[in-house]
Design goal:
Low-confidence stretches: none
Shape: elongated
Distance between the termini: 49 Å
Helix content: 40-55%
CATH topology of the largest domain: Heat Shock Protein 90
CATH architecture of the largest domain: 2-Layer Sandwich
CATH class of the largest domain: Alpha Beta
Strand content: 25-35%
């Protein structure tokens, strides 16, 4: 009585927002179920295969679908629409009608549980990603504070020298003048150093809190972020080199300074933790260049331990980590992937070989659309 439908891989069974008046029994093949939230972020709810039923909620509610269902391989479906279901109910024994509703109830409950679990999982992931972001900022604050102590200590020593030399009104000799001049120069250089650290940190901190889309010099923003992270990484002997391959007319980017800096921070922190663990040290190159007229290419490349083939497939999965003993949470690269694909409208690729290092390649538009 029911009509059969055959679809090729990647064809859509029904889309989110469409009103579907049927449910489907999967005879062969499989589907993936995805939903898009109000911010345009697509979430995967799961997959279904042979013998499973989908679309029963839409059939019962007679409301627009809340998900999009797409074939993951060649697909054969049996379509049971509302009219056919009512006809079937009218033509069978009352006990069988109860069985039909029991099955539909079980299917509905299972679908509701899947959706509820996905919402909880999404909320937990968002919460833990925010906590990871705050942890990275806290580490940066600690590093900047520690680094500022050095120029402040030098300034204090220089002030003491000048105070000693000027305490008594005696003849100004060439040596005394040289000592005072040297103290002034030390003060000048270290005030500049402290100011540089504070100004860069202020820009990055404000951008992390506001996430505003604006035009700015992308190479300057990356260099400021690298400069601050370099302060933290040098304690583990990791040297960061920034390579700006943009011409002056190519530097203006319309995008999100905070999201970009967070991507750079997380990628460099990942290098420190996994490529050069336990303070063995090494070099990492950060490069920005124009991929084509419409896209930038940001790369972060090290010559460290590398990533095994089996781990490369899971490297961007939330909570996947090989470095729990080193403080890894499995969220750093998941945050990077989420920011690149959603906030920056780009893509991220990975090249790695054990013992020869790793390269992350981020490609994103020169203008991020609102």
């Amino acid at each position: 009585m029911a009509q059969g439908v055959s679809l090729k891989a990647n064809q859509v069974v029904f889309r989110q927002g469409e009103c579907s008046d049927a449910m489907y029994l999967i005879l062969e093949g499989g589907v993936k179920i995805e939903g898009e939230d109000g911010a345009g972020i697509v979430y995967k709810y799961g997959e279904m295969g042979k013998g499973q039923v989908l679309g029963e909620l839409d059939l019962l509610r007679r409301e627009p679908s809340r998900v999009t269902v797409t074939a993951t391989q060649d697909l054969d479906l049996l379509t049971i629409d509302r009219a056919l279901l009512l006809e079937m109910i009218q033509s069978v024994e009352p006990e069988q009608v109860l069985n039909i509703f029991l099955i539909l109830n079980e299917q509905t409950r299972a679908a509701t549980e899947r959706g509820f679990k996905e919402i909880l999982s999404r909320q937990m992931l968002a919460s833990q990603m925010e906590a990871e972001k705050q942890r990275a900022l806290t580490q940066m604050v600690a590093s900047v504070v520690h680094e500022i102590n050095t120029p402040l200590g030098i300034i204090n020593a220089a002030v003491n020298i000048m105070a000693r030399e000027l305490a008594k009104p005696v003849e100004v000799t060439a040596q005394r003048a040289a000592d005072i001049a040297e103290s002034l120069e030390l003060m000048h250089l270290n005030v500049e150093r402290a100011d540089y650290l504070m100004q860069n940190f202020k820009k990055i901190l404000v951008s992390q809190l506001q996430d505003e889309r604006e035009p700015f010099d992308i190479s300057e923003a990356i260099e400021e972020t690298v400069g601050l992270v370099r302060v933290s990484l040098k304690h583990n002997r990791v040297q960061v080199k920034f390579n700006n391959e943009l011409a002056s007319e190519q530097k203006k980017w319309t995008g999100y300074r905070g999201f970009l800096s967070q991507v750079v921070i997380n990628l460099l922190t990942n290098v420190e933790r996994y490529a050069y663990p336990k303070g063995i040290g090494g070099i990492v190159d950060v490069t920005i260049r124009l991929e084509d007229d419409t896209h930038y290419c940001l790369t972060v490349k090290d010559s460290g331990k590398g990533i095994s083939q089996e781990n490369q497939a899971r490297i961007f999965e939330p909570f996947f980590t090989t470095g729990k003993s080193a403080g890894g949470t499995g969220l750093g690269l998941a945050i990077v992937h989420n920011l690149v694909t959603n906030a920056l409208n780009g893509e991220i690729k990975l090249k790695s070989e054990l013992g020869k290092g790793t390269e992350f390649i981020v490609v994103f538009p020169r203008v991020i659309l609102e």
